[in-house]
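Tutorial, part two.
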Amino acid sequence: MTTSGNLAYDVLVNDPPPQDGLLPNGEPKRFSPQASTLIYGSEEAVLTDPGLTAEQARAVGDWVEGKGRNLTDIFITHGHGDHWFAAGLLADRFGARVVASAGTIGQMRASAATRPVLWDKLYPGLIPPAPVTAVTVPGNRFTLEGHDLVIVEAGDTDSADRTVRHVPDLGLVVAGDVIYNGVHMYLAQRAIVGGLGPWRAAIDTVEALQPRHIVCGHQNKELDDDAGRTIAETRQYLDDADDLLRTENTATGFFNAKIERYPDHLGRMILWIGASVVYGVRDHPEEDIRKIILSSWL
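Running the prediction step on this input gives:
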């Protein structure tokens, strides 16, 4: 927990849901840990990225309730379902508004449309109903007890239309999937946009905000929120990915080499999926990339 005057933030990291299947090294498939962030004042609070499953919604809701504040808004950083499918349950529980950028709302609709062929197959029966009820706010900013909460457009990282939430009075950026913290990064977007340049530009956007603290959408709960460290490590991970893509000829080789370089990183399933997409597109450029992505997840 970090505080500034009457403003504070806290983070809950949910463990990934159970899942069938094995990775190439024989490990069970496990999704990445997912972080939800609560910004709160004396009486009110705003939540970011409430999670994926009904069980995660319960855990996040109980945690929020324990703070004793009125939850006014739930902010979604981007459209990947693991960051927002639980929003409806929490909005109903607390009477809160769901807020996102226009681009994120479009991506949320796309995730909802693909849910039957992807998310519900990965986690059958675990995900609650998830209508897209998010709204935009004027100027991409709103306030909490007089403190600005600013939605900053970051562009492409592990998918399009990424945003982060900047809380200047806390020196905080809630970074969604722009910055990672001790967790393998989802690299499939590299195959879609033709490189990691847009992601590096998004990191520059976050750095320009001069945060002291960064909460990442996927992070190891044993690590701190130091902004300088997480920015530097995210950049290094991308640089290492480009290096290995020049030397490794197969997705399995890339997967193993990344684990050798990052033995303590969590979320190896996401590493494998991203590698499968990148090498699938490289080896079969004539195939529909959407089919390659879907088969890599399943």
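The longest strand covers residues 147-155. In part three we will examine how such features are distributed along the chain.
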